[in-house]
Amino acid sequence: MKILVATKNQHKLREIKHILGIPVKACGLQVREDGKTFEMNAIKKARAVARKYKEIAIADDSGLMVDCLKGKPGVRSARYASPPTPPNLCCKLLKAMKNCRNRRAKFVCVIALAYPNGQIKTFRGEVKGKIIEEMRGKHGFGYDPVFVPNGYKKTFAEMSSAFKNRISHRARALKMLKSYLRARSSAG
Q1: Structurally, how many domains does the chain consist of?
Q2: Which domain holds residue 9?
């Protein structure tokens, strides 16, 4: 089995290939992410790739949801600040949260699996945690320097990539996808 991945991001592609353990190929088809949910955006991208190339495709959409900001930045996480560098994203987020006592947040990743016949299946991974008041760490990207997952003292940006990739929202969604693919292939 080979799967097309709707991404141009080589880091994401390596992570997907490592976790799934099957051949994957990047497909950088441009699809406008204008859905109101992570599911809508992931489905839109995966469906477009599966239809165009007539092969099985996956796509993800992910972001940060902050309780005191009523779920924002949410599906606009990557476009919350411009340019979307970690310092810009984190500074804008921290400024928006300066009067918030509730620091709870979660990272969400939805992976859509699309078949050329139009069949769709989605897998959602979440990591709950909190937003700290200053940036810490040099690894990762996006909001990693201000997010501490529940049960840990370090931010995602203070963790090694290998460790973060074992507990991340994307890793959780990919593991569900992997289990689904295994069950389907053994069923025949």
Answers
A1: 1
A2: 3-187
